[in-house]
Amino acid sequence: MRRVVLALVTSLGLTVAGASAAGADINLTQTTQVTLSCNDGHSALLNVDATTLTSLSADVTSINSSGTALSCMLDTASIDPSMETTEWTVYDYNPSNQAIAPRNSSRAMPATTTDGGLTWQFPFKPDVYSALFTTTDPSVTGNQYGKTLTDTITLSGDAETFITQHGGGDCVHNVPAVVRFYFTSPSASGPSYPPPGPPINGVPPAGFYTQFWWSDAVNIQMVSGSQGQGQLTEKMLPADWSDWDGQPASEFPLAFTQAAEHVQSIGLSFGGDCFFETGVTPSPDTFTNENFSSKFAVMN
């Protein structure tokens, strides 16, 4: 139940936004969306303010000049946090398989809906690993603690099977390919692992890991391109979630609670049973048409 671990050498100082049950937890000063990608195979999406962006840029510069094997990069885009969207976005790994980027343009084959937003679907691309499928829809972000996530997932097409990468399937092989729930929050607490919390030998500061959460046992293995529908159901409670460092929410219930009360983005993550966000792609790459469909909902 691990993810590829990113090592940061200084505090990220991420801005904590005010909670709202009616909208994504994006502060109006957080006008930049940052994709943080490292060569350990992990990427993260964050909405940050100008001060945090400056600090994060300095951290990345320090990492890249440290002489270690780890290197990272930042990709930024201006956003208007007041213009929250109900759309869903697919994030794919780029050809280096180290950074992710959204499918925004029509040529990138973005997610679409044909039923007014109840169901969203996107096509897989040959030799492209899809990593995340998320939304900042105000109706499913904000305070979601204790609620139940459901998703009816459908795989349809002529792909033989699916694979992940970096040995993410079982820590050695690239199978099984798996999809599971995922959410992020700008508000988190709790220690880094191991304690006591401040950066130690490159370990991120308290509160960094606990901004990113994945469901554990609740997942669907992507075995066949024509396997049809599968159902995911998960409570937003600490019993079956783990953070970026693979630590169970049951050991840090207060950190999980704070994050679940301040959801910024939510949806699905693609990877394996070992690494949860290494992406998936149909295999072999000779398929002609393969589609992923998601009917996501949150219930009280």
Question: What does the model show?
Answer:
The chain is built from two helices and 16 strands. The protein has 300 residues and is mainly beta. The two termini are 28 Å apart. Helices cover 8% and strands 33% of the residues. The chain has helices at 50-64, 253-260; strands spanning 32-38, 43-48, 72-78, 88-93, 100-102, 120-123, 130-135, 148-157, 161-163, 178-184, 212-221, 228-235, 241-243, 265-271, 281-283, 290-299. The protein has one domain.
Task: Classify the secondary structure makeup into a structural class.
Answer: mainly beta
Largest sheet: 7 strands, antiparallel
Main sheet strand line-up: 5-4-7-14-10-11-13
Unreliable sequence segments: 1-26, 80-84, 195-203
How far the N terminus sits from the C terminus, by CA atoms, comes to 28 Å
- Encode the helix/strand succession as letters: EEHEEEEEEEEEEEHEEE
Number of helices: 2
* Total beta strands: 16
The proportion of residues in beta strands is: 25-35%
The shape is globular
In round numbers, the mean pLDDT is 81
| Radius of gyration based on Cα positions | 18 Å
The helicity comes to: under 10%
How does the SSE layout of this entry go?
Layout (H helix, E strand, L loop, with lengths): L31 E7 L4 E6 L1 H15 L7 E7 L9 E6 L6 E3 L17 E4 L6 E6 L12 E10 L3 E3 L14 E7 L27 E10 L6 E8 L5 E3 L9 H8 L4 E7 L9 E3 L6 E10 L1
Antiparallel strand pairs: 1-2, 1-3, 4-5, 4-7, 6-16, 7-14, 8-12, 8-16, 9-15, 10-11, 10-14, 11-13
